[in-house]
Amino acid sequence: MRLNVLLRVKFIKISLFLVSLMLASLAYAIAPVVDAYDDAPPSPSAPANTPPPARSDAPSTVPSNAASFSLEQRVTILERQITNLNPVLVQMDDLQQQLQTLQGKIEAQQHSLKALEEQLRSQYLAVEKRLGQRLTANSYTQKPIAAPIANTSPNTVNESMADSSKSISRHADAAPTAASERAYQAAFQFLKNKQYNEAIESFDSFVKKYPADLNVSNADYFLGQLYLLQGQPELAINFFKRFTTRYTQDARIPDALLQLGLAYFAKGNKEMATETFEKIVQQYPDSKVAQAAQARLQQFKAMTSAANLATKDKV
Prior knowledge:
It comes from Candidatus Aquirickettsiella gammari. TPR repeats lie at residues 254-287. Residues 40-64, 147-174 are annotated as: Disordered. It contains eleven helices and no strands. By secondary structure, the chain is mainly alpha-helical. It is elongated.
């Protein structure tokens, strides 16, 4: 997908270059032609004994002003060439808009890839740490308990969760927890190996099969990044909106909002992209994400100004 986008960008740049050459050739063609002999000094009179030049009996087919054009002729030529130039200007403006759209998609994919790589590193470390804690907790749960108390879970992992009743019901059966962990790790391994299509399928299957699992937030976040990276901004928007709505206390909310704005821009919805970036600047003014969002807003203003100038030139 990225290769196709890059090829389209190169094609548009070549087209713009050819259009520029055409404009340059037209400008050269409409330059006024001046007869080199119009301002030449009069030639000295011939001697009296010099015979007059021989006159041909055949009529001349070349007009006497063939080397120059009158003012009216030049104006006519300019009007005709300007009329022919209007479709070229329209085509050039369309190519510029397509180039801006493709550049927006490339920037969104590059940001998503960079964020995805950073998340992979941090997620990999977090997974290893969590697995180590889980193995330690399981070693304690295997010890016999003399007098178990009703409605009390022996699993020490459940005691560290905010809502103990939900945690107990979630981990009441060890088999589903182990199965969900294996499913998540399989999807994560695809992501780590940059097998993005397989990772999308595995994460999507994991979310549908284990909707209450603790790793669903990670899966939603990864799915948003993967769809944006694969050039499917509409699906990326769905997952980033769901992530920012469900997990309001997650530390990745600012970056998820930034990628949501990039997905809107890649889709061509500049209005929603601007609204999202402005929201980031207002809610997280001192963050790096806010700086990136502010840079996007400045880019939008520059693009709008250029479009307005192009419209005025057409008029």
